[in-house]
From TrEMBL:
It is found in: Membrane. The active site is at K164, S363. This is Peptidase S49 domain-containing protein. CDD domains: S49_SppA_67K_type (cd07018), S49_Sppa_N_C (cd07023). SUPFAM superfamilies: ClpP/crotonase. Residues 96-245, 347-498 form the Peptidase S49 domain. It comes from the Eukaryota.
Length: 580
């Protein structure tokens, strides 16, 4: 890390003296961050719950320079995020240790992902009763075709691309050979990277680490015996140890500042705010839709029409020297993806644009990324899935079972193609249905080839709906550089002819504003359960909207949407229970 000049250090001390109460931190404090559950790639408002990757990473950077922070106490609980985000956080832990301050990890539940992150800490502790499950990694796919047949629902799915797995849970009863090959390769990449990292950390051969895992590691005492953790201590014992380390002699609890409060400390206060040049950061996270549904929850997913407005604002502004497009999306609406692709291309004609991909940039997510001249991915970012899946449900047998009738009057040979769900497609309709999907795939593939300066045949070899790890995607020309957000910033500065050692100001163009439910949740959580009621209503609406979209819609453009899959599964389960 770079040293701050004496003038900057003086300015920092003066700013700390006049900082408002919510930005004040006592000298000698320990930053306490709990990493668990889902970690969003979007910024969070002060009223919203959950962890934000950019804020977590920024806290590491600020704490390294903050003279009031003695070190970091990191609680690592079960994580529900991808390996891309885990790698990004791990990189910040490693960089923080260069400051000379301590970073102590505490891990009450240990799985492969948690240990991969935790072992980057200078010291790692676990309680004597910690849950340990280091057994290896799995990948699984569920199939609902048999359940659908049981209740009289017949899915009509057109999958263009041999490896395109979206829709398989509806159309198939087992895994295809191509998808099995693709998932096995991804699993090999993830497990191989895990073994490489852990073996390097402990100075052992990969074979030794794998042998240890294959012995079935479920006792935390074994982790201590093998030197995988520092010691077995309870949380209060670790905090007592940290009190002694920072020289806190009073009988009060450890002097700490938590994640939420420290997130409100600005980089400007610490002298880390950049100078004159500004780089815009546009974040795009979640599934892609073209317009906002009247019933959709605010700020959910990527709304193309809103993102396009932001892109145009940045393009028309002369104050931004470059743009980083941060993507964490499994895809969605093909039309919306193409419209955003066009706007990103226009943006790239006016100033340097670098796409930085987080956990996943697949299908429509990669469609957006490929519009940028430079693409940066983590080694394990799920990348590509250049393919198309469309489908609809035929509900004839279900309607017969429940004595439901539906009649349609139409004009035009193919007028009932998307409207008729009470009968199978005619041969000519099925042919048109397939041609439409083939046309959508050709548009996607050809634009990908043009965007990545490949021939159509070259792109065809890496397309076909296949999902690659970031590392494999880089070796096949789908990605230009491996790394995280900071790597994207460095490339953006280079493309904008900004000296690498000059600080820049990163401007979050897509910074969220708090919604009414978030404000109610944040400031009135205990007032007659108002926030619970509001959240419950919104969740119900979201759930119903998600199920309805799957029953009425024809597009299944998702690589992996677990929440949606669960909604559909529960919906079908309710139908089965009704008839049983």
């Amino acid at each position: 890390m770079e040293e701050l000049g004496w003038g900057t250090q003086l300015a920092v001390k003066l700013r700390m003296l006049v900082a408002p109460p919510w930005k004040r931190v006592r000298k000698g404090s320990v930053l306490n961050m709990k990493l668990r559950g889902e970690i969003s790639d979007q910024l969070k408002t002060r009223f919203s719950s959950g962890l934000s990757l950019p804020q977590v990473c920024e806290n590491f950077v600020k704490a390294a320079y903050d003279p009031r922070i003695s070190g970091i106490y990191l609680h690592i609980e079960p994580l529900r995020c991808g390996w891309g985000k885990v790698d990004e956080i791990r990189r910040h832990i490693v960089d923080f240790k260069k400051s000379g301050k301590f970073v102590v990890g505490y891990m009450p539940v240990c799985g492969e992902k948690e240990y991969y992150l935790a072992c980057a800490c200078g010291e790692l502790y676990a309680p004597p009763s910690a849950y340990v499950a280091l057994f290896g990694l799995t990948v699984q796919q569920t199939f609902l075709r048999g359940v659908l047949e049981k209740v009289g629902i017949e899915p009509e799915i057109q999958r263009i691309g041999r490896y395109k797995s979206a829709g398989d849970q509806l159309a198939r009863k087992s895994m295809s050979n191509e998808v099995r090959e693709m998932l096995a390769t991804l699993l090999d990449n993830i497990y191989g990277n895990w073994l490489d990292t852990i073996s390097s950390k402990h100075g052992k051969k990969k074979e030794e680490i794998e042998e240890f895992i294959n012995s079935g590691v479920y006792q935390v005492a074994r982790l201590k015996e093998e030197g995988w953790i520092t010691d077995l201590l309870y949380d209060d014992e670790v905090m007592t140890m940290l009190k002694e380390r920072i020289g806190q002699k009073d009988k009060k609890s450890l002097r700490m500042v938590d994640y939420s409060k420290y997130s409100r400390v600005s980089k400007w206060t610490l002298g880390l705010q950049g100078g004159g040049e500004q780089i815009a950061v546009i974040r795009a996270s979640g599934s892609i839709t073209r317009t906002r549904s009247p019933l959709s929850v605010p700020s959910s997913g990527i709304i193309a029409e809103q993102l396009i407005e932001k892109i145009r604002t940045v393009r028309e502004s002369e104050k931004y020297k470059a743009v980083i497009l941060r993507i964490d999306s499994p895809g969605g609406d093909a039309l919306a993806s193409d419209l955003m692709w066009r706007e990103i291309r226009l943006l790239a004609d006016s100033k340097p644009v670098v796409a930085s991909m987080s956990d996943v940039a697949a299908s429509g997510g990669y469609y957006m990324a490929m519009a940028a001249p430079v693409i940066v991915a983590e080694k394990l970012t799920l990348t590509g899935s250049i393919g198309v899946v469309t489908g609809k449900f035929i509900l004839q047998k279900l309607y017969e079972r429940i004595d439901f009738n539906k009649e349609i009057l139409s004009k035009g040979r193919y007028a009932e193609l998307n409207a008729a769900d009470q009968r199978p497609l005619r041969p000519d309709e099925a042919e048109l249905f397939e041609k439409s999907a083939q046309n959508a795939y050709a548009l996607f593939r050809d634009k990908a080839a043009m965007s990545r300066s490949m021939s159509v045949d070259q792109m065809e070899n890496v397309a076909q709906g296949r999902v690659w790890s970031g590392q494999d995607a880089a070796s096949r020309g789908l990605v230009d550089s491996l790394g995280g957000f900071s790597q994207a910033v460095a490339i953006a500065k280079q493309k904008a002819n900004i000296p690498h050692d000059r600080k820049v100001r990163l401007v979050e163009v897509s910074k969220p504003t708090p919604t009414l439910p978030e404000i109610l949740s944040g400031i009135g959580g205990s007032l007659l359960g108002v926030d619970r009621a509001v959240k419950g209503v919104l969740q119900d609406i979201t759930s119903l909207n998600g199920v309805q979209a799957r029953m009425d819609g024809i597009l299944f453009e998702r690589l992996e949407d677990l929440s949606g899959e669960n909604q559909l599964f529960l919906f079908i389960k309710d139908i089965v229970n009704y008839f049983d």
